[in-house]
Amino acid sequence: MGQAGLRTFFIEHLNHLCSAKTQVLQRFPEIAAEAHFRDLKHAIRETMENVEKQVARMETIFMLLQYDSPARGSEAMKAVFESAFAAIHHQEPDPAKRDMSILFYMQLIEGIEMNSFQLLQMTAVKLKNIAVTQALKESYDEAKEDRSLLLLIAAKYITK
């Protein structure tokens, strides 16, 4: 794949990820309100702060690439996220099950985001864009930290 093809791939998939993260960001307050376990509420707020930074970085990347993001997202990513939110709501009568469901789906979402950031970072390296590569590395590191925090909370919750 040549540089032009890589750039097109990069922009399309960055756009999908940015759109999906914007959608998730809008749902975080709702998910935080659903959480019962105090540590989970804190982790959701921390994750939300990181996602806000990641979206801002992606918008900066679009500016660096001189590309206006049409904010067109991936229907597949949206479907995964909406399915996760629906599954959380099905656990409403039982706070413990709801919290575990939140943890499960937030882990799933963070995994998708980590993989996406990693692939986009590799693409940015190939495109020889140091600033974009660094921004994606920072976002990947935050997603990885969020996923680790959620895993620790799940372990604490399960052994409680």
Short key terms for the protein model shown above:
160 residues, mainly alpha, 85% helix, elongated
Structure description:
With 160 residues, the protein is mostly helical. It has helices spanning 3-34, 38-64, 75-89, 95-126, 130-159. Helix 3 runs antiparallel to helix 4 and helix 4 runs antiparallel to helix 5 (130-159). The mean pLDDT is 88.
List the SSEs and their pairings.
Layout: H1 3-34, H2 38-64, H3 75-89, H4 95-126, H5 130-159
Helix pairs in contact: 1-2, 1-3, 1-4, 2-5, 3-4, 4-5
Mean pLDDT: 88
Strand content: under 5%
Structural class: mainly alpha
What pattern of helices and strands is seen along the backbone? HHHHH
Specify the biggest β-sheet. Answer: none
Rg from alpha-carbon coordinates: 16 Å
Helix percent band: over 70%
Poorly predicted runs of 5 or more residues:
none
The N- and C-terminal alpha carbons lie at a distance of 51 Å
Number of helices: 5
Number of strands: 0
| Shape field | elongated
Question: How do you describe this structure in short?
Answer:
With 160 residues, the protein is mainly α. It has helices at 3-34, 38-64, 75-89, 95-126, 130-159.
